[in-house]
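Can't paste images in this forum, so I'm doing it all in text. The chain is below; anyone willing to post the predicted structure tokens underneath?
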Amino acid sequence: MKKVFTMILMSIMILAFAFCNGKDDTYNRRLNTMEDFIGTWVFHSIMGRDEQMEIVWLTAEEYLEQAKTDTPAEDLEHELKERRLITGTQLKVLEDGRILSLTAIPDGIPQEEVDKAVAAGLFTLVDGMMYRGEDNHWEIRDGEVWADTGVAGEVFGEKTDGWEKLFDDEYLMFGTMRFVKQSK
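Text version of the structure:
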């Protein structure tokens, strides 16, 4: 079995890969109404690289399994915990132009601790998930959905304003992750 080396280039899961967005706008053409876009999007896969440094997309199961072969034994528990948080990420796209990044509450955290953290203002709960108050914004440009990644300046030697097309094929691209619309 090939080892897969994952590149996680995240700054609160917001880095956008210019070379991944906009390859195919078929999904943008199918976005007939805002209802197609507004709502909750769930983790589908995360970008990695194989041994030939080709881009591969790892499902949650593959990403977690990879940690077992790529992580030293003493660090495995922590690495799996971090990867479960990543694969449990959801995006809530709101009509007001915001995208909320929601993180699952880690397993084993007592409700009393969650309540204390909420009371201390560390995060709020949105749909039972942690929301740290950091928004990204989206807008429609020439019929396509764009999002402010929060990363402006230079990406791979090219100047960028931080706005990227949000869809690649049928997936919502956010950072190094792909998301699919949650069924109702």
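Residues 1-30 have pLDDT under 50 and may be disordered. The chain has four helices and 13 strands.
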